[in-house]
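Chain and backbone:
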Amino acid sequence: MKANQIKNLEINKLRLNNSGTYTCKVRNKVGVSTAHFFVKVDGEVKAEVKSFDPKNVVITEGDSISFTCSVLSGVKPEIWFLKRISNTEFEEIREETFLEMERTGITSKMLPVLSFNQSSRYLIIEKRGGIWKKNGSYVSTFALHNLQPNESGEYACYGWSNYGIGFRRSWLGVHPKIDEAKFTSSNMPYPPLSTRSTFLLNLPTLSFIVEDDGKIESKAKPNHKEKQNMLVLPFILVVILVLTLLSCVVFANILLKKRNSVKTNNEIEAKADFSSRKKTKTFKPNKRNNESEFEEVTLDY
């Protein structure tokens, strides 16, 4: 039977998230014994942004979205939300409050009662003075309402403390709404085929790509019909080319046969003309000055 066995647990480079309760359990034939130890890690640790979610998302115009930033820090940090406005500049997102008034046209010595409506498009759910903790991290959330396409861009969460600063970024893309375009006889530039026609716009899908170096690239992805058109067009061109080549071959054969036929007819006519013309030489006496001469006469028949 062995006794006085010692086991050590070593944790190098302690971090704040190493704080917590640790348990040591010993077991033998007699039974089980446990001991609990609580460890709290303090120190001058800079703020570290653990997460900023959602990460790189695309939504539709008019929708809303909430970003949550989780910051790990030795002391209570300050948390900012920012939006990139240029290659080197960010602007802080602040909560906006609007006062809506309706004109009544009534004059009175008494001040009218104004209705107050908080219709903020940028709403920071946790104030800086009321940041709460979750699983040992400080958490803050802000919501964006009724988003427009021009609000697409890069957003960032910054966590700051006296010992340092940390940040994370996320890309938000706002896709414009696509509605049915209706054309009537009054606004069509050419006579319509019917009194009223409705067409559905077949626009490409907009997508956003965020690379590791932070560069953002947007691409238009062709839809299914565009892909079909891209495949049909080369096929039509190939068919037209093949038909053109076949037409040229047929036309060349016709010309060659016609030329050979004309040549054969000319040869036949030449042979017939040659055989019908026979030349014979005869001589007849021609007496002039009592001299006998023979005159050559050619008869053709």
About this structure: The longest strand covers residues 164-175. Residues 224-276 form the longest helix (53 residues). The domain at 48-97+118-221 is CATH 2.60.40.10 (Immunoglobulin-like).
